[in-house]
Amino acid sequence: MRVPSLLSCILVYIASAASLSYAHDYARRDAFSSLNGMKMVPKPAAGSPSDGSIKGLMNRGDIEYIVNITLGGSVFAMQVDTGSADLVLYPDQPIKTTSVVKGSNVSQVYGAGSFAGSIAFAELKIGGHTIDSQVFLNATSVDEFITTAYLAEGLRGILGLDAGIDNTNLQDDLYQKYGNKGLVMGRNFLQNIFADSPDLGNFTVVALGRSDDGESAGEGYLAIGEYPEQLKDSFAKADYVDVVEETGLFTVYVDAVKINGKGLPLNSSVRSAPHGKAVATLDTGATAAQVTQDIFDAIYQSIPGAFYRADVGYYVVPCLPPDAPNITITIGGVDVYINPLDLTTFKDLRPDYNYSFCQSAFTVFDLGPGFAGRDFLLGDSFLRNVYTSFYYGALNASYGWVKSPAVKLVPETGTHDVHTTYSDFLNVRRQKLASSPPEATRAQIEKIISEMLNSDNTTSGAVEDVASGASTDSNASSYQSLLDKLDTFAPIVFGLLGAIVVVLFGLLGVGITLCIRRGRTVGGVRAASALYAPVPAPTRFKEPVPEYRDEENARYDQ
What we know:
12 helices; globular; six-stranded mixed barrel; 25% strand; 28 strands; Cathepsin D, subunit A, domain 1; 26% helix; alpha+beta
């Protein structure tokens, strides 16, 4: 049984399309031009089905959202990440730097992965913006996770989109060398754009597309400093939702989580959180929406036919449930309906088994003490359901708050569109099932999972990767390729080994005969001795601080 490929298929949130594994898939796409913001093409209007015609942010199987940048004259594919601030890059092409900080040695940790290298500066071009000398981490080493989940998939690094209020590792190092000047040198790319463009709005808009079970491109867009034309009115009517910590992360209060209109109790682990609310960080760099165990159980236990496997940490759910629940998450009074395609993930078990099945797309938030100060991490499976404007706040010359960072949320699906969205889900999922192996029964999937976990080929490292949501698809594919070759050539190899054994026994017989003959004249046969040779993750999240209030109509200045 080819267990590694089964592990990656069942437990890791990785798309199976082979075309996603090559860097050239992230080539620039056509898009309409914008005077101030990124080049972009909007997602479809709220409530309409996605059709794969969206441009701007490339979508790698609903796992990462990617934008191309030009740094030092070379183009690189980067993941956009509102959960970090720096530009971090492991280059595979030459970069014409404007300067390099001698002796600098910085390490950046991103959950399961890390980059390490020196601090450098180079010209950055992104959308219609050019920064003459942008600081970045010029990584010369990465860990295995980054190699597998990023480099093998054509990604070269991470483009941080958070507000950068808390000093980053790059700024800390530059401050130690250059004092306050180092803080200005270490500004992230958004801070530099806003400082260089005083007429530009001090915000970004992120819309993440949906791949419809891998059947469409599902691209999105990133806008800097302006609202897309068709969403201007919606954002104008939306209220700001202030962040609840001063780290630069977009962390907000969740007012409610509802299943079919009935609210679930929210018991925050954060002492400063108001009663009946939860604390959540909005993070485009996280694939899944991660919630507390009680919320996770309530959501998936409301799906008829779903069952939980504690040994792998997810629910197996019917791909076409007879009565899928209406899940809404409320932030700042805005109800965000979760598309059923973002509640479940479709898995094709071939070539190991001629079956398919569906599993929970949300996960349990359990990232350790370094991620304290929040209850939820609302990643891409939540953010695909809302158009989000990230406002970066304003600081005065003394780095005091004039206006705090905030978000505006415009739901992709309005209340009146829920039925239409559910119908679209049924159509998409039926089409996927029609072109896939039959859906496994509970007994079949229970047996498959048990075989997988009991196999001698399942290493503890693979299980740990699975539990953390790490990407191991590339390693599994390489190992699978080796297994396939062994399957193909095994008969030939064993045939050759058999022939060799026969020849060796023949030679042994001849040798014994000669020794006996020789022994008759010079002495007895000596016994031969047998020989035996044995075969021989600091995080980017920090503790929250007390709430703060702000003044209106101010900008972010350095």
